[in-house]
Amino acid sequence: MADLSLQGVSKRFGAIQAVDGLTLAITSGEFVILLGPSGAGKTTTLRLVAGLEQADRGSVHIGGRDVTHAAPALRDVAFVFQQYSLYPHLSVFDNLAFPLRSPLRPARAADVRRKVEEVARLLRIEDKLQSPATRLSGGQMQRVAIGRALVREPALYLMDEPLSSLDAKLRNDLRLELKRIQQDLGATMLYVTHDQMEALTMATRIGVLEQGRLVQVGTPQDVYEDPASTYVAARLGSPRINLIARALVPGVGAPGQTATIGVRAEHLRLYGAPAASARPAARVRRIERLGDRQLIHVQLAGAEQELVAAASGGSAFEPGTAVQLELVRPLWFDAVGQRIAA
Amino acid sequence: MAEIRVHRLRKEFADFTAVQDSTFTVRNGEFFCLLGPSGCGKTTTLRMIAGLELPTSGQIFLGDEDVTFKRASARDIAFVFQMFALYPHLNVRRNIAFPLVSQGMPRAQIAGRVEQAARVLRIGSLLDQPVSRLSSGDRQRVALGRAIVREPLAFLMDEPLGALDSEFREEMCLELRALHDRLGATTVYVTHDQLEAMAMADTIAVMNHGVVEQLGAPLEVYERPASVFVADFIGSPSMNFLPFDAALASGDHVVRVGSAPIEVPALREDIAARGLLCGVRPEHVRFSDRSALRAQVLGSEYLGTSRIVTLATADGVQLRAKVDVASRAARGDHVGLEFDAEAVSLFDRANGRALRTARDDRIPREGARHG
Q1: B219/A291 CB distance under 8 A
Q2: Does domain A242-340 have CATH number 2.40.50.140?
Q3: Rg (CA), chain B
Q4: CA nearest to B32, candidates B19, B42, B21, B20
Q5: CA neighbor of A35 nearest in space, from A182, A178, A160
Q6: pLDDT (tens digit, 9 = 90+) per residue, B186-206?
Q7: Pick from B35, B31, B41, B68: which is nearest to B234 by CA?
């Protein structure tokens, strides 16, 4: 396994600046996840590392070696794409063995067998090795696709939303499995997704991308609890963080230049309304009872905006109830959405 | 607006039965979700209501009218397919107006209807823009506009949010439900995503292998699943199941899983010796040093407000616990587990049926299995 370093990497496609001066250093054994919506530059970044795109500016180093202009095959990376692309006429075994039989890196048959069986065990598909690839379920096919990357022990794994085509249940299972495999192998991994849950649960560090720029890098807890901007705050957390114009909630102690106040649903407390209170007033609009928790949608007094409060278990509130709000651990943001230190 | 009644509906394709004797009523103004995995028959059911498939047997009523064999175009229903199916060469106004133009409605009336639909969807300012320049969210609103402009008796929607990013899907869920609250239109919505169903539906019909396994309000289905399938399908992460063998008598409130006693809601039926499952949701699992039920931590996932801990018991049963984010549990740790007794479900392992317990005392379970 090896380090990866991106220095001021940029890539433009026509009028679109897909990646803009991206600098990121990943240590050997780290699992770094780039998070952002479609069009933020996630996939382009991966393709630049893999050598499937050429950077306009900047450099890419893998294991201390400058590979900015090296051919993809010479970079020693394994790429897992979003859509599994297996060889339909081959068995699972032969699909997994394929990268080991490449003329660039020939391996002995016994080694191939040992390696394929080891990876199949890791991915829990050892009983499927003789099946034709087309006879598998979607989840099994995607595991084979991931397995094809794992047999190689490359310097670096690159994964482009490998779980997004799977159903929720399988995603839950594979998240933990992928993290376990990465830890057991000590693999260096650069992984991109728009799914905040994957980022929070698997990453050593998360890098948040906004229009080709890396706007914050940190541990999941750092990025969740200490977002650098409203953009980052809104990327993590479900339901999405409440962002409130300052004028709508006076008297919560916001510093001078605050324009927007962010408060996560679990940090918005509701109280039945006592007659006189300095707390912001609101009215319950709708309650989503999701089983493990409730999302209470309230409308701020004198405003259109609705806020969401999360409560576990039961709640005494019904639609129409007047409530007072308490903002626990509010986050302050300035007029351009940048975080203001409390 | 109207009620939709489906009576003993059945659909066979050659040797495959897609829908088996489904019976349910969608009440006037209700948001009704058909939920299940792919191949469960939910889309076939929806297509029969729309008139895009004819049933092998059974009946469909729209209001008081039997529409079972009426042509799709003769049913006053709007079907929302994949939401992006817009005419790319027309602007927003003409896309929304299209269904009315093809009905031959007078121009002045169309203009009023389109304005009103746009107001409801909050896209009034976009009416003169080409659809090719819209964001995916606005395209979706336009597609909805084309459905609501007709003011049909009911809306049928087939996984309309399926193609969207997770982040955006959540937002559209809220928006769709708010739209429903404004219009009060009877809606049948097909999805395989249990979170969408939990967030939006008044009533959920959980389907499996062509059969409606349970019909109920979201919380009802979540808290009192009628079968292992429903228990497993609803909730994320899903319910934990611990197998054990026992004979139980009405009134029993402790079961033994291995050597560990587990408190459960009092049984309301006698059960002859057989294989059973003890079902408990991740948020009802706690760590407790005193507990005889031991497990080893396989992994821990940070979720911001909570943490999902995956564990394995000595018998190799995998469990998940949803615990406070401050709880420390590292891979390899050994812990004891406790469950919230009143929240435990019990199932017959052979047929998947939920056993009757004190949890069912409040209200009888609605439409367990197919009715």
Answers
A1: yes
A2: yes
A3: 24
A4: B42
A5: A160
A6: 999 999 889 899 999 999 999
A7: B35
Q: How far is A75 from chain B (nearest CA, A)?
A: 31
- Please indicate whether the domains covering A4-235 and A242-340 agree at the CATH topology level: no
Q: How many residues does chain B have?
A: 371
Q: Does B166 touch chain A (CB under 8 A)?
A: yes
pLDDT tens digits along B78-125: 888 755 678 888 999 999 999 999 889 999 999 999 998 898 888 899
Are B218 and A168 a contacting pair at CB < 8 A? no
Please give the structure tokens belonging to residue A36.
Answer: 């952002």
Q: What residues contact B271, with CB distance under 8 A and at least 6 apart? A: B246, B247, B248, B249, B348, B355
Q: Which amino acid is at A29?
A: G
Domain architecture of chain B: domains with CATH:
4-223 (3.40.50.300), 238-360 (2.40.50.140)
Number of Cβ pairs < 8 A linking chain A and chain B: 87
Residue B283 sits at the chain A interface (C-beta within 8 Å): yes
- Determine the residue of chain B that is closest to A196 in CA distance: B167
Residue type, A221: Q
Token duo for residue A120: 């199949």
Rounded (5°) CA angle B315-B320-B324: 135
CATH number of A4-235: 3.40.50.300
Q: Is the peptide bond before B243 cis (omega within 30 degrees of 0)?
A: no
Interface touch B192/A290, C-beta < 8 Å: no
Chain A residues 9-68 with a CB less than 8 Å from chain B: 37-38
Q: At what angle do helices B107-121 and B166-183 cross, to 10 degrees?
A: 120
